Structure formats: structure tokens, C-alpha cells
Amino acid sequence: MCLSIPSKIKSIDKESNICTVDTMGIERSASLDLIDQDVKVGDYVLIHIGFAMNKIDEEDAIESLKLYQEIIDKMEEEERQALIQESENCPKS
Amino acid sequence: MQLELKDLYDGFRDAKTIKAYKKIIEEDAKKLNRTINIMEVCGGHTHTIMKYGIPQLLPSNIKFIHGPGCPVCIMPKERIDHAYILSMQDDVILVTLGDMIKVPGSNGSLQDARSKGADVRFVYSPMDCLKIAKENPTKKIIFFAIGFETTTPMTAALLDIVIKQEIKNIFFHINHVTVPEVMRELIDSRDEHVDSYNHNIDAFLGPSHVSVISGSKIYEEFPKNYKKPVVVAGFEPVDVMQAISMIVKQFCEDRCELEIEYKRLVTYEGNIKAQELINKYFQKVCLFKWRGLGNIKDSGLKLKAEYSKYDAEVIYKEILPIEEIEDHKLCICSDILRGMASPTDCTIFGTACKPNKPVGSCMVSSEGACAAYYKYGNLLK
Ligand code: SF4
Ligand code: SF4
């Protein structure tokens, strides 16, 4: 039941401290009462049972995604090398 | 690169990345001449692990132990009976989160109570209580609060509003539980049988959204005092694979540390504002009974005495029973949660015990180990 969802803030109502968020195309509202950082329109937050729990750190998210891409690239390069070597070692029939 | 919402969904589910990590883990696992049993404490992880077939991706010496993971699953019958009895009061509207619907108590579930005429409402957010209270000024709204550290601050935030706005008809029945205490219990109780079963917890996948609130600091004792590495992992499959790889690396390099894989959301300190709200309104209860695991010291929370006028457990003391109820004899949840048995070892798995008619805790919510095996079990064959 803790499966919260990443969402993007669309608007903030300062008076009620409630924001409207976009969760993969679906609009919902969430309370900002538990957020301990400054949030603004365009920020990514994690929503759980009607509350924004925390801001998603954009830099960290991007860094992870980049790391994943690097790992894939490295794997693919290794695979390519292995393939070349294999074909070279292949006894000509 | 600019972040898009889509990246957060797709990027962390990417099949290529999962495969890449599979390779890395395989290479590293070869260097170990032993098996590593990783406990995923949280049912959210159990769900991801089963849904994406992660056990099949891992080398044979990396295994999972499915932990106690879900506050819905571990809710003992005694507490559900409380909710049931409260909901049957004429002037009460019992409000709780959706996941509680089908959990059976001794008289039935809250869904059954509703079909008998009780006013039970399942809401998406505790904040919905405010609207219900306004629309029903002559009724008493009782919020049956459930959840780990993740949902406790939301209950506190609601109480905060109730007090500030002087709302007279919202009350609370608190069933919040805490994660480190149950982890400690599982490790401490291991000596009795586990060694002879040749099972053991070697490392933990730290629950992610619990840690968003409480910070990774709550797990510090496990690497330090118990020599069990902890990696706090996100819920996406790539997160889980990366975290496993981090755990395996620790073993390869003979390290035992607390690490965060889920850096985009979890910090060491966590959400201080939420923690302050929890500390303002809640205190520990000496013993909280976990379905399947029994009484665990200091593992539950209740409202502090000064807020007892909001505490339904105090107000309705006369009608709420305190006797303990035994778990079903055939149910082996306790062993499953300790990593000593698999759901399929249970004689009534999938027969007398199914998700729509659960007998024990692990079948209750979709995040329970038995429910996950039932749903995704064909992947295991
Ligand atoms: S309630 Fe939260 S912590 Fe518990 S199993 Fe579900 S997701 Fe995990
Ligand atoms: S299948 Fe049902 S009875 Fe058996 S261990 Fe799982 S929850 Fe308990």
C-alpha cells in the first residue's frame, strides 16, 4: 500500500496548501502539508495517499538514468567485441 | 538531458538495463562461494520481484526471503474486530484506506460489515475524512489508521487539522507500526530454527517509501550491530536489480554497509517535517501484535495521552475486546516471514487459502508473499 507515484506539479494553491499534479496524464490534487522543502510548479514529487511526500531529486534521477545508459553501452561494446573475436576464432570449414 | 515524467516511469523499468544488471550480478556472484539470502522487508518489493520475474534473472546463489512487508497483511484479527465493532455503532462512520476492505476478522471483513448495514467508507486519502465530517455533522467519523512510517505522518497531519480547526466529530483508531523493530525481531529470533533449516538473512533490501519519511538512518544498526548490509531500494525493477548488485558487490568486497540506491528520493535524514509531526502526536506502544509474527516490542504507535480525547480506542474502551486470538493452525506465515518456508510449502496454499478467501496474513493483500506467488506463481515453474 505504500506504492506511491511520481507526479509533476501543475499548480499550487497557497491558501489551502494543496497542489494539482499530473500523474502520467491524470490530474489529481494532493496536500503539501508534509513537504519540508520549497516546491514550485514543474517540480516532481512523490504522492502517497493524497500527500506529496518528497521532492524527486532531478539531478539524482538523471544521474541514475545516465549510469544505466553507460552500463548498457559498455555491455553492448563488450558483446560486439566478443562477437568479432568469436567469428575470428571460428575454424574455417 | 532534462527529466520528463516518462523517464521516471520508463527509465527505471527498461528491459535492457535490467539485462545489463543481470550480467553484472552474474559476474560478481561467481566470485562468491556461498549463497546470499536477501530479505525484501517490504511487500512493494515482493510485488516487483514477482511481477518482473526477478528470481529467474538471478544466479542460483542469490535468493530472496520475503519479509513481513505490508501493514495490511500483518493487521491482526483483534484490530480488525475493533474496526468491525466500531463500524456497527449507529452514529459512527468508519473510514479507512482501500487496502483494508477484505482483510478478515473473526466476524468478517469491513466489507462484510458494510453489507450488514454499517457505514464503512474506503478513501483514497485521510484528508477525505474532513469532507465526510462536514457532510455528516451528527455522526462520529472514526479514521481507522493503518500503515508503516510511510503513512503515519498523514494521520498526524489530519489530526493537526482537526485540532487547529476545532473539528469535533473526527476520531482515530491507530494501527501504525514501525519497520526497524520487526527487522530486529526477525534477526533476533533466527537462532532457534533457521540454522538447522539452513536459511538465513544475509542482507536487507530497505523499504523505499518508509525511508522517504524516516530517512535511511533507521537502518544504521543492522550493518553496525548485526553485520547485515542494507541497501535502500526503489520499487522499480531496475532499482531492485541495481540494489541487488550493490549488495552482491558488498559481499565481494567484504564490506558491510548501509547504502542508498534510491537517492532520487531518500536521504539519510528523511523528511524532518513529517518526523516532527509524528513525534508531536504519537508515542510507542509496548507491544503490538503482528498477524503471523506475534507480539513485537515497541513496534506500534498510539496517540499520546494528551490527545486521548481523539482516541477511539480510549473513548470506546468498554466495547472493544482485548483478548488475543490465535492465528490459524495450518498457516505457516510465521515461517515464511522468517525465511524458513516458501508459500508453496503451505498445505492450504491456493486451496483453502486464496486471495479472495485469505486464511493468513501473507495472502491478504496483493503485496503479501503468498498472494504474489498465487498471482505470478506460474512464472516460477
Ligand atoms: S505497505 Fe508499504 S511498506 Fe508495506 S508492503 Fe506495502 S509498500 Fe511496502
Ligand atoms: S497460503 Fe495462506 S495459510 Fe498458507 S501460509 Fe500463506 S497465508 Fe498462511
Automatic annotation (TrEMBL), chain A:
Keyword Coiled coil: yes
InterPro entries named in the record: Hydrogenase_HupF/HypC (IPR001109)
Entry GO MF terms: carbon dioxide binding; iron ion binding
PANTHER family noted in UniProt: HYDROGENASE MATURATION FACTOR HYBG (PTHR35177:SF2)
Keyword annotations: Coiled coil
Organism lineage string: Bacteria, Pseudomonadati, Campylobacterota, Epsilonproteobacteria, Campylobacterales
Coiled-coil residue spans: 58-88
Keyword Coiled coil part of the UniProt annotation: yes
Entry superkingdom: Bacteria
Pfam families: HupF_HypC
Organism: Malaciobacter mytili LMG 24559
Protein name per UniProt: HypC/HybG/HupF family hydrogenase formation chaperone
Similarity section: Belongs to the HupF/HypC family.
UniProtKB/TrEMBL annotation, chain B:
UniProt KW Metal-binding keyword: yes
GO BP annotations, alphabetical order: protein maturation
InterPro entries, per the entry: Hyd_form_HypD, HypD_1, HypD_2_sf
Parts of the chain that traverse the membrane: none
Alphabetized GO MF terms: 4 iron, 4 sulfur cluster binding; carbon monoxide binding; iron ion binding
Keyword Metal-binding applies: yes
Family per similarity comment: Belongs to the HypD family.
Protein name listed in UniProt: Hydrogenase formation protein HypD
Source species of the chain: Malaciobacter mytili LMG 24559
